[in-house]
Amino acid sequence: MSERKFVIVDGSSLLSTCYYAVLPREIMFAKTEEERQKHYDKILHSENGTYTNGIFGVLKATASLLKKQAPDHIAFVFDKTRDTFRRKLYPDYKGTRSATPEPLKQQFVLLEQILEDAGFRVLYDSQFEADDYAGSLVMKFRDQIPMVVMTKDHDYLQLVSDEHNVRAWMVQSKQEKADELYNKYYAPYGLDKRSVNLPEKTFEFTAEHVFAEEGVWPCQITDLKGIQGDTSDNIPGVKGVASAAPILLNEYKSVEDLYEAIHDVKEDKTALKELQDFWKNGLGISRSPYKALTKTEEGEVCGEAAAMLSKQLATIKTDIQIGLSLDDFSVSYYDESKMREWCSRLDIKEESVFGK
Predict the structure, then answer these.
(1) 107, 49 contact by CB (below 8 A)
(2) Could you tell me which residue ranges the 5'-3' exonuclease domain spans (predicted)?
(3) Which of 40, 111, 221, 315 is surrounded by the fewest CB atoms within 10 Å?
């Protein structure tokens, strides 16, 4: 990948990861929220009581990113609320998530202020999610500069494009998982982590890597989630089809084309049997997903309705109007002294963020 690049950081994902990575054991293993709250005072904080464990991790990661990967342009995108336009489509969207802990919630607002003070562009809005801003930035600038999205969220894989030189730096939960991916894809070519030059615990996904790991191409990620759903976002999907989804999408390419094939035969018993025989003998799907795909039940989102809704929920917006030029995201606006001032104000040791 060209040395010149625009990195879009999923700030919400990064802050949450950094927050949970260094929580005291008493909080990690507490069984109730009341128990957790009793130990909030053990979370890393400044002298005046401001929680800083997540902020510290993000600032350290940002300083490292600027020094080692040296992007020309950078943006931070954040979620502001869960009550975005997707909740209007499906009120239960992200409905299974627990409330954001107060110590983490406080750090979101402060981190956004710190990053803006340091000269970075920070994008968020009550109507959209972080990935919607990332998608819109990618679409706006991908023909001008190679782009990278940095996140743990697999939704972002739909933005990957070899044609437009858009990659995803997927943050892994453990370094061991990143190493496993390095060994699987880079070692055969004699490459090591140092020569690839990626942030810690990350692996760079191209379109080929997306297909190898997910079973579908980036442009089909939304179709995959349309069928499989996504438990983390409470996207329903079509229950009972999960393992067959990549196989069906390799054949039919999209949810819409899959259902077109089903509609073409549903009134013809002979053609329907031929279709199901093809799924079994031609595609190797041992258990027919036909009933699950065509299920209808009053008061329940299922079958085709669930697939179409789920795909819509999983689709990242790429058309948010962003009235900023490429130059507005230049790292030349970054003021390290401002970030150091914040470290001092929050009682964070500068050398732990910037190194010696």
Answers:
(1) no
(2) 4-332
(3) 40
- Taking only the tens place, the pLDDT of each residue in 57-91 is 999 999 999 999 999 999 999 999 999 999 999 99
Contacts with 205 (C-beta within 8 Å, 6 or more apart), sequence order:
157, 160, 167, 168, 169, 170, 213
What's the confidence (pLDDT) of residue 356? 76
* Residue 290 to residue 2: CA distance in whole angstroms: 46
Given CA atoms 170, 175, 177, 183 in this order, what sign does their dihedral have?
Answer: positive
Q: Which residue has the tokens 């084309």?
A: 257
pLDDT recorded at residue 209: 97
* Assigned token pair, 11: 């700030």
User: Do 98 and 141 contact (CB within 8 A), yes or no?
Assistant: no
Which helix or strand (DSSP H or E) is residue 23 part of?
A: none
Residue 64 and residue 58: Cα distance in Å, rounded? 10
Provide the token pair at 303.
Answer: 């079958």
d(CA 15, CA 235): 23
How many CB atoms are located within 10 Å of the residue 300 CB? 12
Q: 190's torsion region: left (phi>0), alpha (psi -120 to 50) or beta?
A: left
Name the phi and psi angles at 139, rounded to 5.
-65, -35
Query: What SS3 string covers 193-216?
Result: HHHHCCCCCEEEECHHHHHHHHCC
Residues 6+ apart with CB under 8 A from 327: none
166-171 sheet: strands from edge to edge: 121-123, 73-77, 6-10, 147-151, 166-171, 202-205
If we measure between CA atoms, which residue out of 276, 275, 288, 207 comes closest to residue 243? Answer: 288
- Does this model's pTM top 0.90? yes
